[in-house]
Amino acid sequence: MALFLFLLLVAVVLGFIGVLAEGLLYLLIIGVLVAAFAILYVGMKIRRSGRRPAR
Asked: Which residues span the membrane (predicted)?
């Protein structure tokens, strides 16, 4: 969970810098990609933890 929060924080910071700094639109795009990766990571982790091996 700490990795998810860290990735989300990085995505927000990159997004703000990308929006506020002129000519750094690529940072906004990288921030969106990092946020998407963080959401996919958590989704896969939740999905994997929901499966219990049958006995």
From this structure: 25-43
pTM for the predicted model, two decimal places: 0.75
Q: Which two tokens stand for residue 3?
A: 């990795």
17 and 27 Cβ atoms separated by less than 8 Å: yes
pLDDT tens across the length of the chain (55 residues) = 788 889 899 999 988 988 888 888 888 888 899 999 999 989 888 887 766 666 6
Closest CA to 8 of 35, 37, 44: 35
How do the domains of the chain map onto residue ranges? 2-49
